[in-house]
């Protein structure tokens, strides 16, 4: 039997149950299974069975009706990586593995949805303490360079409202706090700042990651070599990806650090920014934090139907951290 490492942070799953799921993909016996402490939506497990893999349980509420879109978007991303050729020879694209039934997704007897892909070894880092902001910017720029290879209209976004402030504000207003009481300070802050942020718009028409935070970027020897969690690929604005990435770097409104990041982005993407565009990046980053904070708060009021909490009250803490800046 596989050696089990670490505690279970969600619903308990016996190692035998995970082994049965893994055997639907590969014949090798798992030697080691460990839950990875990452991701707010899905649960992931490191599996060692000769090679290393990631076994991932998808959030049924979010993905059960969208598996064809996930497979479509992954296929186009994989082709885009291949079409970039030697120019990005070290770039790593996660390789989804098909089950013995010739399908990427496997549904177990409980109705839970699983997939398996190769594990890409990367450097460990402390959140918010990335050594080189230019490396993060260059990594995102390279990703956008790859995504330009996806034909227009090819990707099918699952989360079409992912950066739609009006949509999330409407959800927030409709939340009746029947599950948890409202926070007066947050309500007053959202009411006072919404109009300001709603007036900011950014150019769209790009294929983007959709959740380009630092935790979804793979680094090796200080250089970005790929991205994971590609389920949010969609058509949108590159400015929103930049805002997600900058926010996760925890640099606040530090103009010099934003310029370092954008210098790396320019090198990775082969594009350049005007002074007005740099200002737009900074303003959109503030809008992004406001919107994410409002999403955490709304989900907290609803009883955490979207974001997983590792401890009670985590979503409310994140709401305050992003809103009250």
Quick gist of this model?
The chain has ten helices and eleven strands. By secondary structure, it is of the alpha+beta class.
Overall description:
This protein is α+β, with helices and mostly antiparallel strands. The chain folds into two domains: 3-118, Phosphorylase Kinase, domain 1 (2-Layer Sandwich), CATH 3.30.200.20; 133-323, Aminoglycoside 3'-phosphotransferase, Chain: A, domain 2 (Alpha-Beta Complex), CATH 3.90.1200.10. It is 41% helix and 15% strand. The chain contains ten helices and eleven strands. The strands form three sheets. Strands 1, 2, 3, 4, 5, 6 and 7 form a seven-stranded mixed sheet that branches. Strands 8-11 form a two-stranded antiparallel sheet. Strands 9-10 form a two-stranded antiparallel sheet. Strand 9 and strand 10 form a beta hairpin. The longest helix is centred in the last third of the chain and has 28 residues, at 275-302. It is globular. 33% of the residues are buried.
How are the elements arranged and paired?
Layout: E1 3-5, H1 15-23, E2 32-36, E3 43-49, E4 51-58, H2 60-63, H3 67-83, E5 96-97, E6 106-107, E7 113-118, H4 133-147, H5 165-174, H6 184-198, E8 206-208, E9 217-220, E10 223-227, E11 234-236, H7 238-248, H8 255-269, H9 275-302, H10 314-323
Parallel strand pairs: 1-2
Antiparallel strand pairs: 2-3, 3-4, 4-7, 5-7, 6-7, 8-11, 9-10
Helix pairs in contact: 4-7, 4-8, 5-9, 6-9, 7-9, 9-10
């Amino acid at each position: 039997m596989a050696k089990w490492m670490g505690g279970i942070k969600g619903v308990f799953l016996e190692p035998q149950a995970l082994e049965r799921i893994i055997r639907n993909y590969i014949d090798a016996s798992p030697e080691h299974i460990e839950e990875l402490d990452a991701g707010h939506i899905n649960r992931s497990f490191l599996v060692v069975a000769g090679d290393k893999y990631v076994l991932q349980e998808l959030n049924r509420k979010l993905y059960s009706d969208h598996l064809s879109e996930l497979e479509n978007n992954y296929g186009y991303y994989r082709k885009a990586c291949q079409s970039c050729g030697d120019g990005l020879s070290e770039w790593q694209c996660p390789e989804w593995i098909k089950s013995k039934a010739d399908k990427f997704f496997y549904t177990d007897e409980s109705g839970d949805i699983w997939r398996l892909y190769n594990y890409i070894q990367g450097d460990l880092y402390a959140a918010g303490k990335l050594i080189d902001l230019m490396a993060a910017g260059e990594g995102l720029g390279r990703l956008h360079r790859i995504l330009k290879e996806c034909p227009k209209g090819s990707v099918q976004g699952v989360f079409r409202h992912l950066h739609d402030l009006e949509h999330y504000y409407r959800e927030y207003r409709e939340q009746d706090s029947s599950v948890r009481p409202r926070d007066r300070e947050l309500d007053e802050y959202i009411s006072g700042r919404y109009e300001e942020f709603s007036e900011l718009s950014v150019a769209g028409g790009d294929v983007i990651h959709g959740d380009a935070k630092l935790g979804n970027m793979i680094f090796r020897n200080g250089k970005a070599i790929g991205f994971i969690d590609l389920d949010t690929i969609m058509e949108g604005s590159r400015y929103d990806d930049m805002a997600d990435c900058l926010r996760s770097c925890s640099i606040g409104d530090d103009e010099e650090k934003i310029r370092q990041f954008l210098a790396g982005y320019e090198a990775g993407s082969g594009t350049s920014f005007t002074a007005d565009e740099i200002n737009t990046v900074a303003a959109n980053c503030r809008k992004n934090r406001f919107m994410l904070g409002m999403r955490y708060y709304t989900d907290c009021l609803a009883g955490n139907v979207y974001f997983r909490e590792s401890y009670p009250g985590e979503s409310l803490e994140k709401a305050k951290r992003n809103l009250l800046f």
